[in-house]
Design brief:
about 45% strand; four-stranded mixed sheet; signal; seven-stranded antiparallel sheet; alpha+beta; DUF1036; DUF1036 domain-containing protein
Length: about 160
Amino acid sequence: MGPAGAARTRSAQAAWLLFLALPLACLMGTSDARADFRVCNATQNLVGVGIGYRAKAGWITEGWWHIEGSTCKTLIEGPLSSRFYYLYAEDAERGGRWDGPINMCVAEKEFKIAGVTDCVARGFQRAGFQEYDTGEQASWMVQLTDEPATDGTAAVTGTNSQ
């Protein structure tokens, strides 16, 4: 086969591969990109998580999401509306925590609390939350890792999840 015949064969092979790849590319293109705030628990223990954020009406804290070991959970669905989010988590089995310097209100059971001041006077508990600057991304993921700190130095990473 001469150079012209080899070029036609390569061209035909490339066209065939493109034909096969096109439906796969279309399927991948139709899947919606997920936009949300997710927390992944990279430990082997059950973890309880609370989140804080600023809404139009003021500061809100919500919890508890129970996240089994080696799983993820979406805390906020859809594109993020704030730049800063605040997270607090407790290891339900070992008693450690992932916390930070920003004080917000939490409760013993499931909660959605408006406001972050006078927690105890209003019948809530005060907890230190870690701040995450999402850089105004539409989606964000925080991964809780082993060895939760009890001194405010959280062993966690936060990243744009897209």
